[in-house]
Amino acid sequence: MARFEHAGCRLHYEVHGQGEPLVLLHGLGSSSQDWERQVPVLSRHYQVILMDLRGHGQSAKPRSGYRIATFSDDLLALLQHLGCGPVHVVGLSMGGMVGFQFAVDHPQWLRSLCIVNSAPEVKRRSLEHWLWWAKRWSLARLLSVETVGRGLAARLFPKPEQAALRRSMAQRWARNDKRAYLKSFDAIVGWGVQERIGAIECPTLVIAADHDYTPVQHKQRYVALMPHATLAVIEDSRHATPLDQPEVFNQTLLRFLAAHFPPQGTSRPC
């Protein structure tokens, strides 16, 4: 177990393997543990860096500091602590938002960016958006983290053969600190950097599940705003693609990285 402190918050991180540094950023209410189906594969080729975002997993749960920009600053502090960069960054859901923020704020620290089932903004632009977020906001506060976890697990992993995964994810979700979870949830609503993503110059892969919360067409629209971005759609997948389609996800990511950064026979680990 490794930890470092930034802006008054002790943050948990792990490093696996050797090679070019590749950062994996988890989503809201999740932790670095949920990359368990990626680390063994990716660490054969890269030095995989995991971090529990503040308020999540084994990181501290401070009373303040829950902003996407702060999560991004925490990542920069970790890379400076490790003495490595530029890096490849992969972010799922809220982790993808942190990836977008990091890309526009610290482009010199990026070799590539992979966004998974996420978006460069969460703005309420219509009555439908306001109602949807109001419902989620209310349920998050009224229900226990155990109840929310069971509901999300059932929605994300509905197949009979996913029963073990469903139970595991519900148990992990129940370990969330509710106050930290709600503050992180509030950090998402109203956030956005979409007006800046046209300046992202590094190779970018956007991975979209065919049954994600938001349609593939939404991802197509913002992919078109970035000069070096491509879209990959993974079939028979929901929001947690790295967990429900790990083999396809891993190979999609590895192909993207190999196409843009062919192995050179040398590595640049942290």
From TrEMBL:
Keyword Hydrolase attached: yes
Lineage: superkingdom: Bacteria
SUPFAM superfamilies membership: alpha/beta-Hydrolases
AB hydrolase-1 domain segment(s): 21-244
Alphabetical UniProt keywords: Hydrolase
GO cellular component, one term: membrane
Keyword Zinc belongs to the record: no
InterPro entries named in the record: AB_hydrolase_1, AB_hydrolase_fold, AB_hydrolase_sf
Gene Ontology MF: a single term: hydrolase activity
Name of the featured protein: Alpha/beta fold hydrolase
